Amino acid sequence: MGETIVKLGVLGPLSIRVGDDSHTPSAPKMRSVLAMLLVNADQVVPVSSFIRELWDEDPPVSCLTTLQTYILNLRKLLATAAGLTTRQVASEMLVTRSGGYLFRSRQDDLDVHRFHELVAEGRRALSSGDDETALATLTGALQIWRGPALVDVAAGRIIEGRRQQFEESRLVVLEYLVDTQLRLGMYREVLTELAALTADNPYHEGLHAHYMRALYLNGRRAQALDVFQRLRVNLVNHLGLEPGATAQDLHRSILNAEPIDAQGGLRRPTGDIVRMSSAGASRVY
To answer: What DSSP letter does each residue of the chain carry, written as one string?
Structure first.
């Protein structure tokens, strides 16, 4: 028999799966402990961080014992899922370290690792001018997402911070994907997604500029101008800001019916795409 493959997920609902079978814990605080381990995979999570995440500033007297119970129950759950003994899980997967616990992951068992791997491949393709490969690879990276990151976990400050980092990383990749699609002449294909993205991100100037460009290149000049006005109203009314130079210049070109192409979006990356690792540290790749 082959090795049992356990798939772990944080890019969407929290997930532990073996084939079609789910082994995800249902108890809210156990889910929070698991999420803490996964978003900090391969790094020691201090006991103090678990306590702060689970109970904020008001931990019970029994918090250390309760945390140990959660860890023991997670080891039992992982042992069942992976076909290992609890002792093996404690030595190979969910390991006790001085002052905390560490979850050891493999490259392909945690969805966020695979996401970052594909994004790195897409970045290399963009840097070399291979838009077709970049399109396929970045699309594959985004298809890993199953919904908002850790959408079903009651998040404290630490998990919420990681969740926001993952979501920001996803937005960056979406923007580069749309930019690539526009360079490849996929003006019609991007309209539906950009309509949704700009509605969900009313202050994101880059996405609005892409939407304006796509509409204009589809012969929908009036709608492109409307997109700029919505962006400006949102920025002025809620943030007290005017749109930046890129959006302003594009608006002026569309207003004057000047010819534009799809090359006015993001520059090809030259090592300046920043991502957040599962441990929360900024990395350039």
So the answer is: -PPP--EEE-SSS-EEEETTEE----SHHHHHHHHHHHHTTTSPEEHHHHHHHHHTT---TTHHHHHHHHHHHHHHHHHHHHT--HHHHHHHTEEEETTEEEE---TTTBHHHHHHHHHHHHHHHHHTT-HHHHHHHHHHHHHT--SSTTTTS---HHHHHHHHHHHHHHHHHHHHHHHHHHHTT-TTTTHHHHHHHHHH-TT-HHHHHHHHHHHHHTT-HHHHHHHHHHHHHHHHHHH-----HHHHHHHHHHHTT----GGGSPPPPSS--EEE-TTS-EEE-
